[in-house]
Amino acid sequence: MVGLKEKYKDYFKVGAAVNIYTVDTHKELLIKHFNSITCENETKFVNIQPEENNYEYDQTDKILSFAKKNNIAMRGHTMVWHNQTPDWVFKDATRDILLERMKNHIYNVGKKYKNDFYCWDVVNEAIEDKKDLFYRKSPWLEIIGEDFMDYAFNYAREVLPDTDLYYNDYNESEYPKRDKIYKAIKDMLDRGVPVDGVGLQCHWNICSPSMDDFKQAMEQYAKLGIKIQVTEMDLSVFDFKDETRLDKPGIDLLKKQAAIYKEGFKILREYKDIVDTVTLWGVADDATWLDDFPVKNRKNWPLLFDENHEPKEALYAIMDF
Ligand code: G3I
User: Fold this and answer.
1) With 165 labelled, which of 95, 118, 157, 226 sits at a CA distance of 20 to 30 A?
2) CA dist list (Å): 306 to 29, 110, 256, 292
3) For ligand 1, is residue 201 a contact (CB within 6 Å)?
4) What is the pLDDT of residue 200?
5) If you measure from the C-alpha of residue 169 to the centroid of ligand 1, how many angstroms do you get, rounded to a whole number?
6) Catalytic site residues?
7) What is the DSSP letter of 172?
8) How much distance in Å is there from the Cα of 277 to the middle of ligand 1?
9) Does the Cβ of 232 fall within 6 Å of ligand 1?
């Protein structure tokens, strides 16, 4: 079987999230099928700068050396986020102090991987899911104010003139959240803030989003006139509120999952001129964050390869065009 990256070479890069363990356990699949990787946790604020001015790059460097050796590009995830950010960052922070801490972090990680990462998720998940609020309430918003994203992107551009800078979020296809994501980016672009791309996480499940909604969302984001990446795609076999546990997924369920992947990739191919990379949030079903979310310790099968690293229906479905 030809590799995924080969099959998609005229469309977009195909990526996967890895961590310090899966970069070994999924090595063969990564080398054969993927030409982009993202660190699942290793490049987040808490991992990189757990204490002020104490930068820890060892794990990322190990993953980077695997990527370089195998000619795989690397994306950065993520600089400014409400989650996985250590408490010291917000402790006793005024607006000026927090901006200084933000700037130091962005400058340091930016500079360190300047020649290695082709893009960064500069800001992650700043838009609120609930209908009546625009921005997510977070210490970044509350301490700095609504212009915190402008600062983040401007600092990132200062240190990374040639790297693509992304705003990244989930529930990207849902209305009205997609309108809010669109508006936040559009307004930044109108203010001259350097946003090069929108990252659509695409944590989907067997019931939602509908592919009509995804298509409409793609159409809307395309109007921004910047690049699009799918950054964290996976497809839970359970509806979000379903707490069922299964010993293994039935063939019908896997076929349904494959059909959604097929349609999703078909839509993405239609936008190949602006879609830069499509990244899966993992490689094979033996290692997925969905085994612990939203139901703790419940097995899930959201990816393109099974627990034995064999191709699933979903893989064949997206290769069949
Ligand atoms: O490192 C500690 C370890 O020391 C400790 O013993 C263990 C006990 O639970 O926890 C370990 O940390 C875990 C970490 O992953 C590393 O494995 C955290 O508990 C766990 O919460 C964390 O989950 C990550 C999650 O982000 C946190 O928000 C997932 O692996 C990661 O896949 C997930 O990724 C996010 C994206 O960054 C942003 N979009 C959503 C996506 C899925 O939630």
Assistant:
1) 95
2) 11, 35, 15, 17
3) yes
4) 99
5) 17
6) 125, 232
7) T
8) 23
9) yes
Ligand 1 site, residue 172, Cβ cutoff 6 A: no
Give the Å distance between the CA of 41 and the centre of ligand 1: 7
Q: Measure 17 CA to ligand 1 centroid, in angstroms.
A: 12
Q: Whose CA is nearest to atom 30 of ligand 1?
A: 289
The residue whose two tokens read 């946003």 is 195
CB-based burial, 282-301: b 16+ in 10 Å, e otherwise? bbbbbbbbbbeeebeebbbb
- Tens digits of per-residue pLDDT, 133-178? 999 999 999 999 999 999 999 999 999 999 999 999 999 999 999 9
Q: Which CATH number does 4-319 carry? A: 3.20.20.80
Kindly state if the Cβ of 41 falls inside 6 Å of ligand 1.
Answer: yes
DSSP codes joined into one string, 208-250: -S-HHHHHHHHHHHHTT-SEEEEEEEEEESS-TT-----SS--
CA-based radius of gyration for the chain: 19
> First and final CA of the chain: distance in angstroms?
14
Q: Where are the domains of the chain?
A: 4-319
In this structure, are residues 221 and 198 in contact, taking their beta carbons and an 8 Å threshold?
yes
Q: Is 277 helix (H, G, I), strand (E, B) or coil?
A: strand
**What is the pTM (predicted TM-score) of this model?**
0.97
